[in-house]
UniProtKB/TrEMBL annotation:
Binding site for NADP(+): G11, L12, A13, V14, M15, G16, N34, R35, T36, V76, K77, A78, N104
SUPFAM superfamilies hit by this protein: 6-phosphogluconate dehydrogenase C-terminal domain-like, NAD(P)-binding Rossmann-fold domains
EC number: 1.1.1.44
Active site: K185, E192
Organism placement in taxonomy: Bacteria, Bacillati, Actinomycetota, Actinomycetes, Kitasatosporales
Family that this chain belongs to: Belongs to the 6-phosphogluconate dehydrogenase family.
Positions of the 6-phosphogluconate dehydrogenase C-terminal domain: 181-471
Pathway: Carbohydrate degradation; pentose phosphate pathway; D-ribulose 5-phosphate from D-glucose 6-phosphate (oxidative stage): step 3/3
UniProt protein name: 6-phosphogluconate dehydrogenase, decarboxylating
Length: 474
C-alpha cells in the first residue's frame, strides 16, 4: 500500500519545518514526522493552510503516507541522530526508495551511509542546503549528491523549491555521486568563512587606518555593493554596521564581544584540504582568525605588546585609501574562490565525482549565503573552459587581479606599517605571488631535505632522482 505524499520530512526543528512548508507552498503533498509528535501537530496547526500536509505520529504511519518510490527527507541534528533515524526508517523502506539527508553531514559519513544503503537497494542522497532558515522557506541553494537515478526522482521537486538565479534558473544541480553534495556544501561554507574574514579586515582597515565610523563604513559598503562586490554578505555587513544598540545607543558592533564562534564546517574544509594537499590558505586564515579571537587568555597581552603609532589621514587620503581597500578586497576574494574551486576539483578527482565547476558556481548565484554577482563570472569562466586549471588561468580574472595588485600591495604594506592584522589579504597576496614566481624556494627546501634525510631531489636538467653526499662524514 502506498500513500499520496510526494515527499516526507522527518525532523521538524527550524530548518525541517521551513523546508516542509516550502514543499507544501509549491504544491506538493508533504508527510510530516518528528520524534516528539507535538511539533508535527504544532506545524499543521500553525501553517496548515499553506498546503497539503499529512501528519504522522509513528515511523510506520509516516512511511505509509508516502507515494512510491518514497522520498523521505531527514532534517535532524548531524551525526549520531542521523544514523539513529536511518536505522529506524531503513527497515520500513523498499528497493528504489530514496532517503535524503538535508543536514550538515560530513561528506565521509555520507559516503559511508550511501554505501550501506545502496547494498540494501535504497538510494541515499546527501544534500547540502544553504541559505539558513529564510532560504529553507523561500528558496535555498541546493547541492544534492547521490546516484543519477535518485536525482531523476528528486530533481523536479528540488527545482521547484530552490531559489532562482537572475536568469531564472533554479539554484540546484546534481553535483555527483555519494558524498559530492555534502563536500561541495562544506567548501561553500569554507569560502563563506573566507569572504567574511576579508570583509572584516576591510572594516578593520577602514576603521583603524582611514578613521571611519561604523556608519561611514556602512555607507562605503553600500557603494561597493552597487559594483563588482555586489553580494549578500556585503549587503548585510552594511546593515550590521549601521545598526545601533537599543540599550546604549552605541554602534552595535562596539557592544558585541569580539570573539567569533564556529560550528565546524570551516574547520572540516581545512582538514580535508590538508588531506588532499590543496593550498586553501585564505580559508585556513579565516578559521584561525576566529580561533585566535576566542583565546581570551592569549590576548591578555593586548595592553603590553608595543605597536606602531597610528597616523591620521586627511579626508582625501582616507577616501583614496578606501578605494584601495576595495581593490584589495576584490583581489583577495578572487584568490579565495580560486582556492575553494581548486579544492572541489581535487575532491572530485580523488573520489571520481566528475563535478562540473561551472554548475557549482551557477547554483551559488542565489539562495545561499555567498550569493554574489561575481559567481556568474566564475560560471562563465568554467563554462568557457570546463578543465580550466585555476580561476587565475582565466584571462578576465587574471586581468582584474593584475589591475588591482598595486593597490592590494599598498593596503597590506599600510596595514603592516600601522599594525592592523590582515591575515586574509596577506595570505591571498602571497598565494598570488607564489603562482607568479618563476622559481620558488622549494628548490632549497628539497636541498635541506636531501641533506638531513637523504630524501633525494629531481633536477631541472636531467630525468631521475638524485642524492648528494653531503659533508663527507655524515
Ligand atoms: P534544535 O535545532 O531545535 O536545537 P536539535 O536538537 O538540533 O534541535 O534537533 C533537531 C531535530 O532533530 C529535532 O526535530 C529533533 O527532534 P525532537 O523535536 O524530538 O527533539 C531531532 N532529533 C534530534 N536527535 C534525534 C534522534 N536521536 N532521533 C530522532 N530525532 C532526533
Amino acid at each position: 500500500m502506498s500513500g499520496t505524499a510526494q515527499i516526507g520530512v522527518t525532523g521538524l526543528a527550524v530548518m525541517g519545518r521551513n523546508l516542509a512548508r516550502n514543499f507544501a507552498r509549491n504544491g506538493f503533498t508533504v508527510a510530516l514526522h518528528n520524534r516528539t509528535a507535538s511539533k508535527t501537530h504544532a506545524l499543521v496547526d500553525e501553517f496548515g493552510e499553506e498546503g497539503v500536509f499529512v501528519p504522522a505520529d509513528s515511523a510506520e504511519e509516516f512511511v505509509a503516507a508516502l507515494e512510491r518510490p518514497r522520498r523521505l527527507v531527514i532534517m535532524v541534528k548531524a551525526g549520531d541522530a542521523t544514523d539513529a533515524v536511518i536505522q529506524e526508517f531503513a527497515p520500513l523502506l523498499e528497493e528504489g526508495d530514496v532517503i535524503i539527508d538535508g543536514g550538515n553531514a560530513h561528506f565521509a559519513d555520507t559516503r559511508r551511509r550511501e554505501k550501506e544503503l545502496r547494498e540494501r537497494g535504497i538510494h541515499f542522497v546527501g544534500v547540502g542546503i544553504s541559505g539558513g532558515e529564510e532560504g529553507a522557506l523561500h528558496g535555498p541553494s541546493i547541492m544534492p549528491g547521490g546516484s543519477k537515478e535518485s536525482y531523476e526522482s528528486l530533481g523536479p521537486l528540488l527545482e521547484r523549491i530552490a531559489a532562482k538565479a537572475p536568469d531564472d534558473t533554479p539554484t540546484v544541480a546534481h553535483i555527483g555521486p555519494d558524498g559530492a553534495g555534502h563536500f561541495v556544501k562544506m567548501v561553500h561554507n569554507g569560502i563563506e568563512y573566507a569572504d567574511m574574514q576579508l570583509i572584516a579586515e576591510a572594516y578593520h582597515l577602514l576603521r583603524a587606518v582611514a578613521g571611519y565610523s561604523p556608519e561611514k563604513i556602512a555607507e562605503t559598503f553600500r557603494t561597493w555593493n552597487t559594483g563588482r562586490l555586489d553580494s549578500y554578505l556585503i549587503e548585510i555587513t552594511a546593515e550590521v554596521l549601521a545598526h545601533r544598540d537599543a540599550a546604549t545607543g552605541k554602534p552595535f558592533v562596539d557592544v558585541v564581544v569580539d570573539q567569533a564562534e564556529q560550528k565546524g564546517t570551516g574547520r572540516w574544509t581545512v582538514q580535508i584540504a590538508l588531506d588532499l594537499g590543496v593550498p586553501v590558505s585564505g580559508i585556513a586564515e579565516a578559521v584561525f582568525a576566529r580561533s585566535l579571537s576566542g583565546h581570551a587568555a592569549l590576548r591578555d597581552v593586548s595592553q603590553t605588546l608595543p605597536g606602531p603609532t597610528a597616523t591620521a589621514l586627511s579626508e582625501d587620503e582616507a577616501a583614496r585609501f578606501a578605494d584601495r581597500v576595495e581593490q584589495a578586497l576584490y583581489a583577495s576574494k578572487i584568490v579565495s574562490y580560486t582556492q575553494g574551486f581548486h579544492q572541489i576539483q581535487a575532491g572530485s578527482e580523488e573520489y571520481g565525482w566528475n563535478i562540473d565547476l561551472g554548475s557549482v558556481a551557477a547554483i551559488w548565484r542565489a539562495g545561499c549565503i555567498i550569493r554574489a554577482a561575481f559567481l556568474d563570472r566564475i560560471r562563465g569562466a568554467y563554462d568557457a573552459q570546463r578543465d580550466l586549471p585555476s580561476l587565475l588561468a582565466d584571462k578576465q580574472f587574471a586581468e582584474e587581479i593584475g589591475a588591482a595588485q598595486d593597490d592590494w600591495r599598498e593596503v597590506i604594506a599600510t596595514a603592516v606599517r600601522q599594525g592592523v592584522p590582515t591575515p586574509g589579504f596577506a595570505a591571498a597576496l602571497s598565494y598570488y605571488d607564489a603562482l607568479r614566481a618563476e622559481r620558488l624556494p622549494a628548490a632549497l627546501t628539497q636541498g635541506q631535505r636531501d641533506f638531513f634525510g637523504a630524501h633525494t631531489y629531481r633536477r631541472t636538467d636531467r630525468e631521475g632522482s638524485f642524492h648528494t653526499l653531503w659533508g663527507g662524514d655524515r
